[in-house]
């Protein structure tokens, strides 16, 4: 008589592979966390910042930073670009895709239920009652669930979560980039409009002088050389006006593209000069906390780290539990009878033995991608510090240059006025008068161009700081140019 196995021994034999899988999964080595801020030592303050450090960025209100320029037209354009810019729309679509992939990765950790039905011709099956070929119909439900012993599914879900967070940060980075581009193009266009108005005013003065010189030439009181010089000055100034018109057309078309409009049908009306805000630099650690590109690089590192865990988990066993329930019958008419019911429960344990080095190569590739992500994060952190330092230094030097240039403008205007008086009284030649006027015009244009550079550099500083700066109530501003 064959001995009956002990129930406890049978249970132990069934659970032995499961215990072995748990032991192997527990042997998985934890990955070391990447160094904070990619190993970059954060300075206490920016070298280009004032001696008295501004309050930390996180302690200041956040919001629409472009409102600091107090220009309604600029605010309307930035908000319009946020809705219609194609780069922002594409980044938002990539974020939606990443979130869908996250939901897909999370779904892999849940039981999977499906329905199936089929008809087949087979022989030798017990359900057919013999070796003769017979038709077998089936209908039922299938349930499967993978036991995540090694953490492979959870690591894949974590990687997808970090990918989604990286895409969200990249969307914010794209939005900030578009906002800054709109502000820069708009402020440059306004600067060209002011410069054109100055040139148009000078052209009117030159034309008045040309008419006066023409009358004096006809009366014999002026030489033909003086008339030719005035005609040259009028034509050269008109040519510069056309060059400014060309630059304005290019900037208007660039703005139209940024706000999602058709080039040619877009225009910007002249208006009052925008305010030039004073931007507190804050502390370097706060800049890293709010720059979206740095946040995206950090999330990419975390995703790469999780994928290394996925590659390592591929070495360990996988246990899949399945269950089927339904009906099976050789007669389709009897398929749904209670007597045709069938069911089954299965547990599948799979353990890799030999794969020709495929898993090792995948793990090495995942580690290499992690190293590349850490290097990219380090580069992003260093770039963030450089961007802020560049703009702080530029604003400081532009401010000093503005003070010196204001004295040059005042002196050139005074010299032009005195030369005009002396020319009308016959003390100086027309050539000296033209030189004085030309110098005064050049200094005033330099002042306008310097002012435009201050505007655009301020926008670049806000972008370098992460774009979340907003002036508190009563924040100081530089008065707009008169």
UniProtKB/TrEMBL annotation:
Lineage: superkingdom: Bacteria
Entry keyword set: Lipoprotein, Membrane, Palmitate, Plasmid, Signal, Transmembrane, Transmembrane beta strand
Single GO molecular function: efflux transmembrane transporter activity
Cleaved signal peptide residues: 1-30
PROSITE patterns per record: PROKAR_LIPOPROTEIN (PS51257)
Bilayer topology term: Lipid-anchor
Cited InterPro entries: MdtP/NodT-like (IPR010131), OMP_efflux (IPR003423)
Subcellular locations according to the entry: Cell membrane
Record GO cellular component, one term: plasma membrane
Record family assignment: Belongs to the outer membrane factor (OMF) (TC 1.B.17) family.
Name used for this protein in its record: Efflux transporter outer membrane subunit
């Amino acid at each position: 008589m064959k001995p009956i196995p002990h129930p406890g021994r049978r249970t132990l034999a069934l659970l032995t592979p499961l215990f072995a899988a748990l032991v192997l999964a527990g042997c998985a080595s934890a990955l070391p966390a990447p160094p904070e801020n990619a190993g970059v030592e954060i300075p206490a303050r920016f070298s280009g910042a004032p001696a008295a450090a501004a309050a930390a960025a996180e302690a200041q209100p956040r919001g629409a930073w472009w409102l600091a320029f107090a220009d309604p037209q600029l605010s309307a354009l930035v908000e319009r670009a946020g809705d219609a810019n194609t780069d922002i729309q594409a980044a938002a679509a990539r974020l939606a895709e990443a979130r869908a992939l996250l939901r897909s990765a999370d779904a892999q950790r849940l039981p999977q239920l499906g329905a199936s039905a089929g008809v087949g011709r087979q022989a030798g099956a017990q359900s057919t009652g013999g070796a003769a070929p017979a038709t077998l119909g089936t209908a039922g439900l299938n349930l499967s669930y993978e036991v995540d012993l090694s953490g492979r599914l959870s690591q894949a879900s974590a990687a997808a979560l970090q990918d989604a967070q990286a895409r969200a940060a990249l969307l914010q980075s794209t939005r900030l980039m578009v906002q800054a581009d709109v502000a820069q193009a708009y402020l440059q266009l306004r600067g060209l409009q002011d410069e054109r108005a100055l040139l148009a005013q000078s052209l009117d003065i030159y034309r008045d002088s040309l008419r006066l010189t023409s009358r004096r030439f006809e009366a014999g009181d002026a030489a033909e050389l003086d008339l030719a010089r005035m005609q040259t000055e009028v034509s050269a100034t008109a040519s510069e006006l056309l060059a400014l018109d060309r630059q304005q057309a290019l900037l208007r078309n660039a703005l139209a593209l940024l706000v999602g409009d058709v080039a040619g049908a877009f225009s910007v009306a002249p208006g009052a000069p925008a305010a030039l805000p004073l931007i507190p630099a804050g502390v370097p650690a706060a800049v890293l906390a709010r720059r979206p590109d740095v946040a995206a690089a950090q999330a990419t590192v975390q995703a790469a780290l999780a994928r290394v865990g996925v590659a390592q988990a591929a070495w360990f066993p996988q246990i899949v539990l399945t269950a089927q329930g339904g009906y099976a019958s050789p007669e389709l008419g009897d398929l749904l009878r209670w007597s045709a019911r069938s069911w089954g429960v299965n547990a599948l344990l799979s353990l890799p033995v030999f794969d020709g080095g495929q898993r090792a190569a995948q793990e090495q590739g995942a580690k290499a991608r992690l190293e590349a992500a850490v290097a990219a994060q380090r580069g992003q952190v260093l770039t963030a510090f450089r961007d802020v330092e560049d703009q702080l230094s530029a604003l400081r030097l532009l401010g000093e240059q503005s003070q010196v240039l204001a004295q040059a403008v005042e002196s050139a205007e005074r010299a032009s006025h005195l030369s005009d008086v002396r020319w009308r009284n016959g003390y100086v030649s027309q050539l000296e008068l033209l030189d004085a006027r030309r110098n005064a015009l050049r200094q005033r244009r330099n002042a306008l161009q310097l002012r435009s550079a201050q505007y655009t550099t301020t926008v670049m500083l806000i972008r370098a700081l992460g774009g979340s700066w907003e002036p508190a109530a009563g924040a100081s501003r530089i008065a707009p140019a008169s």
